[in-house]
Request: fold
Amino acid sequence: MEQIIQDVVVVFNDFLWSKLLIVLLVVCGVYFTTKTRFMQFRMISDMVKVLKEKTSKEPGKISPFQAFCISMAARVGTGNITGIAIAIAIGGPGAIFWMWVIAIIGSASSFVESTLAQIYKIKDKGGFRGGPAYYMERGLGKRWMGVLFAILITLSFGLVFNAVQSNTITVAFQNSFGTDRLTVGIIMAVVFAGIIMGGVKRIAKASEYIVVVLAVLYIGVAAFIVLVNITELPAMIALIVKNAFGIEQAAGGTLGAALMNGVKRGLFSNEAGMGSAPNAAATADTSHPVKQGLIQAFGVLTDTLIICTSTAMIILLSGVYQGSDLGGIELTQAALSVHIGPWASGFLAIMVFLFAFSTLIGNYYYGETNIEFIKSNKIWLWIYRVAVISMVLFGAVAKVQLVWDLADLFMGLMVVVNLIAILMLSKVTFEALKDYKRQKAEGRDPVFTRDRIHIPGEVECWESEEEVTGTRKLNVTQ
Reply:
């Protein structure tokens, strides 16, 4: 039965990814990049500044940095370690070049979707929630489209992607310590269940600590390896570029594999344009929607150009990918062992556990907020929680290839629906960006009101200029 499912999924994936999705991602990314006048290059300093912005201390409010950490918890996981190894194993070193390309142009897509999520967010238990399902319903007036996306992201992130994380953890531990995969899966499911019962504030707090510590530690290890092998760095970069465009790769049929796997694994890791990060972006308490859009664009660049590239350098500088039948986490473990010794395999297994566990938390939240969009009902929420925990257990023992093929399928379907929506609403983001720049040019900290630009549809959380002025007068009087 498992083999039949995998065969069907592979057929659909080949159809979806062969041309349609790659063209759609590139065209949208280039369009958003030009319309925002290359904001991913020109506004790097703004991205860093707004990341440090503090929020009000009202109960239930999520700071811009905490919202960034929720999204990074979902981004920074097995895609950065296992996904990049798979891309190199199947597509060769050239896959890394295309991963960089899709991240750079994709950061503009992430900016557009996250800004829209902020504009169309709604109030929720003292805080906010939102995402593609919400801007599809409120901005486009298409609830059916929002429900379709909500179902896809719940299945993708809450169930399938969490099976991928669980699968990588158990394979890594089995490879390093010989542990039973089911036993590790049960322990993980129990701990995970305890965390997700605490709600978004606990999710945000857990993500804030886990993501920062892990990212710094992993990048530090990669930086050490690069410094030790610094003389080989120019040759490695030349190898990546040569394999991305090389004549022998085109003749041998591996050029397409490099392109496709670079795009797929890069997208799985950074999620640009997929519609996942906007769910976290919407939770932030910020003075202007563009600020959270900038933060999420920065997240895409950080995830791929720094963390994913760290994994690529570890593997390529080791040389173990050549003539090896290893793939996924085993390849990364073998490469790290070449650089720093046999103990590195166990070290990476523990790192993967923590990386993937933080991703489980972020993925769960994406599903929860979309379950609430479809129907705010505690029974449905509990059914979802049980299903998530069940998929963690399934992923712990399933075949590696099956869970990755399922992830690619659902990821592709999500991208198609979301990109259509943000293309239709992109003018709202472009106008919001102009308003942000205008206020910055006037020397002000940008503050958004819903009447500063034309916004189609329903806006709940942003006051008009008149309402803001009235509130200020009332505060002065009091």
Notes: The longest helix spans residues 400-441. The chain has a mean pLDDT of 80. The CA atoms of residues 291 and 348 lie 35 Å apart.
